[in-house]
Amino acid sequence: MFVRTLALMLATAGLMLPTSAPAQAAPDAFNPKPGPTFNSAVGDQGQQRKIYNRIMRAINSSPKGSSIDIFSWNFLTQQGKDALLRAARRGVTVRLIMDDRNVTQIDNPSFPQLRAGLRTYNKNHPKKPNSWARLCEGTCRSQNGSAHTKFFTFSKVGRTPRVVMQGSANFTVASTTNQWNDIYTHTKNRQVWKFYQRIFHQAAKDKPVFPAYADKKLDKFRMIAFPIRGKNAVDPIMQTLNRVSCKGATNTANGRTKIQIAPDVIRQNRGMRLAKKLRKMWNNGCNIRIGYTVVGISIGKMLRDSSGRGPVPMKHLTQDNNCDGEFDNYFHLKSMTIRGNYYGDRSGYALVNGSANWSGLAKVSDENLGIYRSKSRVLRYEKHLDYWYGQNIWGKRNCPTGTLARQAAADNDQLIFGGDENAVYEDGTSVSNGAYDPFASQPED
């Protein structure tokens, strides 16, 4: 999710695109391989839909008797709805969880149609395992927050068992045409499969789980589920940063540890704590680069301060293509790469990806996170971030001469839903002076 402001505004964008899939699509024969997949919000449809098509192919390649479990903050795609209903009709157990605000606060026909279709299938096939689509009111596995997780599990895709895809992408058309996203695919691994199945079935009950924070350590990687609540809960981002030494690296050109961050959102008290840590690491010699969508005012000022080693390099990875004061396209990844002196290894590599922004809201929400110690994966993400960081496509474009940026609605720390006179804060109160320009200013932390 960008800020929930824009995500809710753009969620309906998919309704303007071709939405219906053939009633009887030919079965696919997809066998996914492990590793990362990226999409681009600009370019042709193939580039935009790299992740979306991967999910669709996995659905269409799930055989009779298999299961599909999807936990997506938002589900808004008629093609996806059609594919899931076809899967159910051929004997696949289909289950989906979504945040309820993406039905109650936006026009979203896909979810109720999927839910109704699955109920009809269950009624007509009482001996089959139940398929369903459910909503969580706030965090599924705790209280407050959001059901912000984004993962897709398939018991079998083609000939490949136990497929898990996790990352920043929701199952929406907006995730293809308005966002840059990533997913990381696991295949065949029983422990990965069991972890995500446990989280999914806990979330399906929409009741607090104790402890809510789950951290499974495997060889060379970890799987983590938020909220960060419970006796043994730690902030895995801060924990990862604390394991970095800024100098003495043997796998960088100048011996300084290199950190590339695309966190989407850095806000609230948690965001400030993490940003202060980055500022300290920058002053201690780490080479740091941040590509962001939203940063709180005080956080941005602190990171850009000229003291010490000077401002931390940052770039606003958003596009306003019609100069109306609203993001049209934006980086939605929540990733970090580390190359250098990490965890006692002077030639170490670490990758963090998933659904969690660097914010207080993420701390209390359902989120998925992966931490991988893999040179090849880090280099893949570095190359991706280097490319887009270097493109001259960001910011306001096509602005009429003399256009004035609209000011932020208020200097508080809440995100905003909607726009113009109908905009409201997270708590439902009205934004009194209308339109909100995320380019002009961000809510103060």
From TrEMBL:
<protein>
    <submittedName>
        <fullName>Phosphatidylserine/phosphatidylglycerophosphate/ cardiolipin synthase family protein</fullName>
    </submittedName>
</protein>
<feature type="signal peptide">
    <location>
        <begin position="1"/>
        <end position="25"/>
    </location>
</feature>
<feature type="domain" description="Phospholipase D-like">
    <location>
        <begin position="56"/>
        <end position="202"/>
    </location>
</feature>
<dbReference type="Pfam" id="PF13091">
    <property type="entry name" value="PLDc_2"/>
</dbReference>
<keyword id="KW-0732">Signal</keyword>
<dbReference type="InterPro" id="IPR025202">
    <property type="entry name" value="PLD-like_dom"/>
</dbReference>
